[in-house]
Design a protein that fits this description.
This protein has 564 residues and is an alpha+beta fold. It is 52% helix and 14% strand. The strands form 3 sheets. Strands 1, 2, 3, 4, 5, 6 and 7 form a 7-stranded mixed sheet that branches.
Length: 564
């Protein structure tokens, strides 16, 4: 599955669009990266850029953008209302999908090291990329701003994580840069059945982390209570990592609670929605729906869909499309205007940019016709992965039917867990359908490399071997994943809806054929791979998996026959 990172660099130029365009051009040159947004601010003299892509490509795009910014922005002449200390002031990485925060932080350090060593710019790593606790807070790293950078660099306690610790002529122009890994920020507005900004603000104060000022006697018009420093004492709200206010929207004629969730790992969008609904109801107000401003990672919507299905005591082992549909309907994201996930979810936008034809997006007839054509791919490897995906789908179907079976209401969660596992297996196997064909195409591409010189011949031979190894590993992965399908199908034969026992049995038959078919592809590709130690090891493992698959199939068939 593709790993995705979002990058949100802030450049210290918000007035000269030619300069901004030179920087964003560098981002758009990098294949595997999509520029999502460019937001310049005149008063702040600062531009926030958002792009997303695969990790290595995001690092490269960020590096080239920082490099260009260091060339076209001169911090000696910069003035603006926003705190800043460098041409590229901050450059946070945000994990979007299939990547952990720890991995994201590693990529942040990879970028920081390059910027420090190659561009000779002082770099401070903050938030989840911080090397010490006092550097987690961006405000601490940026304290003194550009005007105080000379003093900061001379302080041993604030030596940059990477790059020069001196305010030389080059640094005088570029300033410093702060690089981090942080969580995704979601902006979401809650629609209320009221026109009162005051009521909307009251709800916002109820939930936002900062809360509201404490007042004498607990009265709204009471005198604010101050601490020993003369600062207002605050009563915290119920949602961590949130900021919120109430406002009136002329366009819709309603009041809204406008919220920024600064860390969706701490407060997911669905939890925030339910809490705002609860606090609104306590004040006699109803949340009629919500609107997410900008883009969201797919995982936010998937988690929301599962959350609301669980509240209904329904199986969460359903398709991705169904989960997102449930999330949209549950949070009323289509209350004011249609919500199109294809245009609002980051991963879907990137998929739309991918012009490559995927086998799994074909109709059943189209896939069969493509297989039957004179093209050598898709072949047995892709077909094996697809058979396994169908086996997983059948096992998942039985789990979902069992979860919703009348009289089994107290067992819905048991079968939901099985269905969720089945969906994950199905999705990975569908990925392997196209990946097997992709691995074959890599071999063909390698054979097409030039071989005019000794260097070209060596490079071509190595590319062929690397591609051949991958063409062995992909069907072997199909074998490994398919073995988990047997577990699902066996469980559904044993405990699932008796009316569907044969469906689980057919799933096991699909899985057996998938293992054997994938193993054929492993073995035929092994014949062209020169590392015989690797070949002997993977074939031995394959023989063990195939023997287990055949034994499990026989066991499951015996169980099915006994039940029908």
């Amino acid at each position: 599955m593709k790993k995705l990172i979002e990058c949100v660099p802030n450049f210290s130029e918000g007035r000269n669009m030619d300069v901004i365009k030179q920087i964003t051009n560098e981002i758009e040159k990098i294949k595997g990266v999509k520029l999502l947004d460019v937001d310049p601010g005149y008063a702040t003299n600062r531009t926030v850029v958002t792009f997303v892509g695969t990790p290595d490509e995001v690092v490269e795009a960020a590096f080239q953008a920082i490099k260009k910014a260091s060339e076209v922005i001169d911090m000696r002449n910069h003035k603006g209302e926003h705190p800043r200390f460098g041409a590229t002031d901050v450059c946070p990485f945000v994990p979007v999908s299939n990547i952990s925060m720890e991995e994201t932080a590693e990529y942040a350090h990879k970028l920081a090291k390059r910027v420090g060593e190659e561009l000779k710019i002082p770099v401070y790593c903050y938030e989840n990329a911080a090397k010490e606790e006092k550097r987690r807070n961006l405000a601490s790293c940026r304290a003194g701003e550009y005007e105080g950078l000379n003093k900061k660099l001379s302080d041993p306690d604030w030596k940059p994580c990477y790059g020069p610790a001196e305010f030389n002529k080059h640094v005088e122009k570029t300033g410093a840069t702060a690089i981090s890994a942080r969580d995704f920020l979601v902006a979401i507005n809650y629609n209320l059945n009221t026109t009162s900004t005051r009521r909307a603000n009251a709800i916002a104060f109820d939930v936002r982390e900062k809360g509201r000022p404490a007042r004498e006697g607990g009265k709204v018009n009471g005198k604010p209570i101050l601490d020993e420093k003369g600062e207002p004492v605050m009563i915290p709200g119920t949602l961590k990592a949130t900021k919120a206010i109430g406002w009136f929207i002329e366009e819709y004629g309603i009041a809204q609670v406008s919220m920024n969730i600064t860390n969706v790992s701490i407060t997911p969008v669905h939890i925030a929605f339910d809490e705002v609904c609860k606090k609104a109801e306590e004040r006699g107000i109803r949340v009629t729906g919500s609107e997410i401003v900008g883009l969201v990672p797919k995982k936010c919507m998937i988690e929301a869909g599962k959350y609301f299905l669980k509240k209904q005591q329904r199986s969460v082992g359903v398709s991705e499309d169904e989960l997102i549909k449930i999330a949209v309907k549950s949070m009323g994201l289509d209350d004011l205007k249609p919500y199109n996930p294809q245009e609002r979810i980051i991963e879907y936008l990137l998929d739309a940019e991918d012009k490559s034809k995927k086998l799994i997006d074909m109709t059943c007839k189209g896939f069969a016709d493509e297989t039957a054509s004179e093209s050598p791919a898709p072949g047995g490897g892709s077909i094996s992965a697809y058979m396994a995906a169908l086996g997983a789908a059948l096992g998942t179907m039985v789990a979902n039917l069992s979860s919703h079976k009348a009289g089994w209401d107290d067992r819905w969660e048991e079968f939901s867990n099985w269905a969720e596992k089945g969906q994950a297996l199905k999705d990975e196997l569908l990925f392997l359908v196209d990946e097997d064909t992709h691995s074959f195409n890599k071999i063909m591409d390698a054979f097409g490399l030039p071989k005019n010189t000794d260097e070209e011949k060596t490079a071509r031979t190595q590319a062929i071997q690397d591609a051949t190894k991958y063409a062995i590993e992909v069907p072997f992965r199909t074998m490994e994943v398919t073995m988990k399908v047997f577990e699902l199908c066996k469980a559904m034969v044993e405990i699932g809806n008796p009316a569907s026992v044969t469906d689980a049995g057919v799933g096991a038959l699909c899985a057996r054929s998938a293992v054997m078919g994938a193993f054929y592809n492993v073995k035929i590709n092994c014949g062209d791979y020169k590392d015989k130690t690797f070949v002997d090891n993977i074939v031995a493992k394959g023989n063990e998996i195939q023997a287990k698959a055949m034994a499990l199939e026989a066991e499951i068939m015996k169980m099915v026959d006994a039940k029908i």
